[in-house]
Design goal:
The structure is a single chain. By secondary structure, the protein is mainly α. It contains eight helices and four strands. It has a two-stranded antiparallel sheet with strand order 1-4. A two-stranded antiparallel sheet has the order 2-3. The longest helix has 31 residues, at 165-195.
């Protein structure tokens, strides 16, 4: 029979999301007080360090994005559970459009509300992480790199040992997403220097492109029952 690939798992969309993911992390770190939008391990670490030193306000600065990130994961799952069977619009389109909208609002928040801005950005990152978890059938994150780096290295090692081309292709896929994440971070840093707080609107535009792409179906592939 014929099985239709989901555009939400395509490399093209993965590249757009990786650009947005790197952009968001660079934006929150460079423009919003050196807080990570995606790398919650770093936020948890810095929260713990500041707690140990009695810096309660700084600890809160890193703690709130972590909580917002968890809430974003919850929201993405709730949307999936309630809307996954809808035919008119895919539930992932709803989450990516919502993510674009909240990031657009962050662009108009002044520095005086960085705690809120960072929390909303982390909230949006979590929605993206939970909604888009695969590319070409491979588990890949578009908002962080550590898991991708592990999988890329594992795939290349597998190729060197087994000589299977599929493993090499998988490794290149992971490294490609990491590369575009870095490109997104570069664009984020440059954009902050030019646009300050409003730079995050560019990330929102990336997501709108992704939203539009999802109206187009993917290529068909043959599968065996």
């Amino acid at each position: 029979m014929q099985k239709q690939k989901q555009i939400s798992e395509s490399l093209q969309l993965g590249i757009i999301l990786a650009l947005s993911g790197g952009f968001m992390d660079a934006y929150s770190y460079v423009c919003r007080g050196k807080v990570f939008a995606n790398a919650q391990t770093g936020n948890i670490l810095l929260c713990g360090v500041n707690l140990s030193e009695g810096n309660w306000q700084l600890a809160l600065k890193y703690f709130c994005p972590v909580i917002a990130f968890a809430l974003g994961l919850i929201l993405a799952n709730v949307v999936q559970f309630h809307l996954k069977d809808k035919k008119v619009i895919h539930w992932r389109q709803i989450t990516i459009l919502f993510e674009a909208a909240v990031l657009f609002l962050v662009g108009f928040m002044p520095q005086s509300v960085n705690l809120l801005a960072n929390s909303i950005t982390s909230f949006a990152c979590a929605i993206q992480l939970e909604s888009f978890r695969k590319i070409n059938g491979n588990g890949i994150a578009t908002t962080m790199c550590i898991g991708n780096l592990r999988s890329a290295t594992q795939s290349i090692c597998e190729f060197l040992y087994t000589k299977e081309k599929k493993a090499a292709i998988r490794g290149v896929l992971y490294f490609t997403i990491i590369g575009f994440f870095v490109v997104g971070a570069i664009l984020g840093n440059v954009s902050v220097k030019l646009l300050q707080e409003k730079a995050i609107i560019i990330s929102s535009l990336f997501l709108l492109v992704g939203f539009i792409m999802m109206f187009f179906s993917g290529e068909e592939e043959k599968v065996i029952d």
